[in-house]
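// run 5 | inverse folding | seed 20
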């Protein structure tokens, strides 16, 4: 059996070589963000979320910590922290699972089949049980407002450059004033 650190490297590399956009944090393999798309034919279809993944030192023997970075309206996701309530990650994790299982099976299943009887977001659970149409509308509203691709995979340097562009616009400078700038 390979060591936990080798398994961590293999699992992260498998995720990076798949169709997922992975953004490492602090150039390590213990913390990273993954771009996750809502499952087809679900209320979340078309939504894009940044999922924060933290791998413990004992991974794969201990489960990863998974959380939504941008907001999602779902009974089993805490709206403020993004924490996920999912038995397969929190209680019944097995070293047989890997990171691809999380993004190809566990999270899509969570979004397709919410469990309002075990909520982290009481408002979402209550609305889902009492007013399904209202719940569906709120999920779609959150997807429109918070789950757009341009809101997910931005590094701090990109955010900083946007602030600079905004400052330039406020100061009256135009793109033409910037030497070497090419219009798209």
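// decoded
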């Amino acid at each position: 059996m390979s060591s936990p650190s080798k398994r961590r490297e293999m699992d992260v590399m498998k995720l990076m070589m798949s169709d997922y956009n992975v953004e490492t944090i602090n150039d390590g393999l213990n913390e990273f963000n993954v771009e996750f798309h809502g499952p087809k034919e679900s209320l979340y279809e078309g939504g894009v979320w940044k999922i924060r993944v933290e791998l413990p030192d004992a991974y794969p023997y201990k489960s990863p910590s998974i959380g939504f970075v941008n907001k999602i309206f779902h009974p089993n996701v805490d709206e403020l922290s993004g924490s996920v309530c999912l038995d397969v990650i929190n209680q019944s994790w097995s070293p047989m699972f890997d990171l691809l299982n999380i993004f190809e099976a566990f999270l899509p299943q969570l979004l397709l089949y919410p469990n309002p009887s075990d909520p982290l977001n009481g408002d979402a659970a209550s609305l889902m049980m009492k007013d399904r149409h209202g719940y569906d509308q709120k999920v779609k509203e959150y997807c429109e407002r918070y789950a757009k691709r341009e809101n997910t995979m931005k590094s701090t340097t990109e955010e900083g450059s946007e602030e600079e562009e905004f400052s330039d616009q406020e100061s009256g400078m135009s793109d033409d004033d910037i030497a070497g700038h090419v219009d798209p």
